Amino acid sequence: MVPTQYYLILSAILFGLGAVAFVFKRNIISIFMSIELMLNAVNLAFVAFSQASGKLDGQVFVLFVIVVAAAEAAVGLGIIILTARNRRSLNVERVDLLKL
Amino acid sequence: MTAPLLIFFLLAAVAVIGALSLILQKHPIHSALSLIVVMVALAGLYLLMGAEFVAAVQIIVYGGAIMVLFVFVIMLLNAGEEEHTDFSKIAKFAGLPLALALTGLLAAAMVRHGGSVANATNPDSLADTSKISMLLFSTFVYPFELTSFLILVAIMGALVLAQREKS
Question: Domain for residue A99, yes or no?
């Protein structure tokens, strides 16, 4: 039996790495993927707490997070395609004007 | 060291290395493949915790559907290596310490409050997908129905965003 604390620390590390990637990456798709990494870290914490408490609420919440992530990916990637089509660049530092 | 602990450290190392690789890779397609590695490792951890259903959903929805969508968009847009533009001076000096502080703070807070969670009385009862479905359709039935609206809105949003303007 692995202690719950180990899972929580791993979750924090993954979330921190996701936050670092979110800030340091310049490609808009990579930034979007780092958001997914952070959501995955949160899911890990949910399941760890669910296992520790013996209740299944945490696992149900993970399902909701996955649904939200899927919806977010669909809309977000639509926005990315639109941005890339209009700006001809995927670098977020070149997308700094509200109007072209 | 017992076998579950060994598997945990193996999968945790794979997940952390995959996440580091996501940061360090310059090409978005390599970042996407690293993220898939992280997700498969996390699915293994869910299996280790006895959450089979979540592990299966993780592989099918995350590793399958969402990441295929990402790879599809990367190839559709023909995304090349990311260029390095005006790196912020504050980020250069304060970025790494702040990231470490965030990680430490999160870990400390979660570990401290994780201890107060009541211990599982019967861990074997967790490995039961039917109980998740009972919970999903009784206690959480309203949020569950709301997610269907969310998906509907997301579908319409993606359609409106991605369609070409008629000229």
Answer: no
On whether residue B6 sits in a domain, the answer given is yes
pTM: 0.89
Residue B44 burial (CB < 10 Å; 0-12/13-18/19+)?
Answer: buried
Q: How many domains does chain A have?
A: 1
- Six-digit token pair at A48? 């760890």
Interval A5-49: pLDDT, tens: 889 999 999 999 999 888 888 888 999 999 999 999 999 999 998
ipTM, 2 dp: 0.91
Using one digit for the tens of pLDDT, what is the confidence trace for B123-139?
Answer: 555 557 888 888 889 98
Tokens 């970025």 map to which residue?
B95
Selected for mutation to probe chain B from A7, A11, A20 (highest B CB count within 10 Å) is: A20
Q: Token pair 């399958």 is at which residue?
A: B64
